[in-house]
Amino acid sequence: MQKRALICGVSGQDGAYLARLLLSKNYHVTGTSRDAQMARFDNLVRLGIRDQVDCLSMSLTDFRSTLQVLDRVRPDEVYNLAGQSSVALSFEQPVEAMASIGTGCLNLLEAIRFLGRDIRLYNASSSECFGDTGGCAADETTPFRPRSPYAVAKAAAHWAVVNYREAYGLHATNGILFNHESPLRPHRFVTKKIVAAACAIAKGFKQELRLGDLEIKRDWGFAPEYVEAIWRMTQLDFPADLVIATGQTHSLREFVSAAFAAVGLDWSGHVEVDDTLRRPSDIACSIGNAALAQRLIGWRTQSTMTDVVQLMVAAELDPGRGSPPEGGAREIAGSIRAVGGKRQPSTR
Fold it and tell me: Is 164 part of the annotated catalytic residue set?
């Protein structure tokens, strides 16, 4: 029988890539948005799958709305990717962060328990829950020390999943994903801001880029590879919370350098540090250890930070080509990279 999947937050980067993956596996896919009639679902359009995904209105902060959609769709698998997605915005809207992430996840869990059906739940936890680990790679046993309202909300949702799993026997799983990027990232994320600015400067449309702390370090991966891990986790016979990461960390300065190098520029002549852009509290270094994921679901990353940056730059410079096809970031970037009519060599 054809499996049915419900993706909460289908309009985001991960939701759109996950929808494409599930469709390729012959799922019937339904996605939700707070107001599906008004939402444009641009990422689904960009991936060429908008007409293959049923889209419904649902508010995860409204239990009745959540219960009604679950009862109507009758999914085999539910993927909770909804809620506030910006760490920076969570400092300005902390109550919204807790409601959309924490309460939203709790409503899903309670609705699944109430219906009493065999539904598998995946919840998007976050590496932000770990806080600053002092440069040590975080794994599934690393304590949570959240440093933002976003991370606090994600930690609350994470432990709600664990509680319902243990108390009611739900097949509920947390994916502790580290940073992962793609051309579908919205411009409010610093990675897309950097890529867009580098391309604009290369074209002569912009003169400088202002950023906060260039020394923060992150473990950056490729989003389509990470949604593959999400699906594999959900197929396990037993629920397991897993870290998904590359195991490599790079500074924001290195990310900036790679983006400007991809358009043939030296970043140092175009980037200004603006202390007003620093967060009230931030994580100096973030890195993950995905050894357990490799053992349990056979997943490991294929793409490096430089691969992903080059792909994002290539897509930004040639948006008319639409979203890149499936595959590793290095191979995709090599197939579409073009600056000034000349193919650019890979840095690897």
Answer: no
Q: Which domain holds residue 163?
A: 4-180+220-244
Q: Is 126 among the residues known to form the active site?
A: yes
Q: What is the CATH number of the domain that holds 96?
A: 3.40.50.720
In a domain, 199, yes or no: no
Ranges under pLDDT 70 in the chain: 320-348
Q: One of 128, 225, 228, 316 is an active-site residue; which one? A: 128
- Domain for residue 281, yes or no? no
User: d(Cα 246, Cα 305) in Å, to the nearest integer?
Assistant: 9
Q: Is residue 340 part of a domain?
A: no
- Please give the Cα distance from 343 to 337 (Å, whole number): 6
Q: Is 128 a catalytic residue?
A: yes
Q: For residues 61 and 107, is the Cβ–Cβ distance under 8 A?
A: yes
Residue of 79, 150, 164, 226 marked active site: 150
Total tally of structural domains belonging to the chain = 1
Q: 316 and 195 in contact (C-beta within 8 Å)?
A: yes
Residue-wise pLDDT for 275-322, tens only, equals 777 777 789 999 999 999 999 999 999 999 999 999 999 999 987 655
pLDDT digit string, tens, across residues 197-244: 999 999 998 888 999 899 999 999 999 999 999 999 999 999 999 999
